[in-house]
Predict the structure.
Amino acid sequence: MKYGTSHASGEAGTITIFNPKTGRVEDVVPIVKTDAGWQEQLTPLQFAIARKRDTE
């Protein structure tokens, strides 16, 4: 099984992740938002790092 790739478990539209809270591997539906949607939710610094890869 390839973790972090789409359709890893054979279930269309999901990705497989490790959940450190539960200690288990889980299939989840990816979150899809526009940049405007992310800007509403994130601080300017979080947006720059997460969406624009502005880490330096």
In short: The radius of gyration is 14 Å. DSSP finds two helices and two strands in the chain. The longest strand covers residues 15-19.
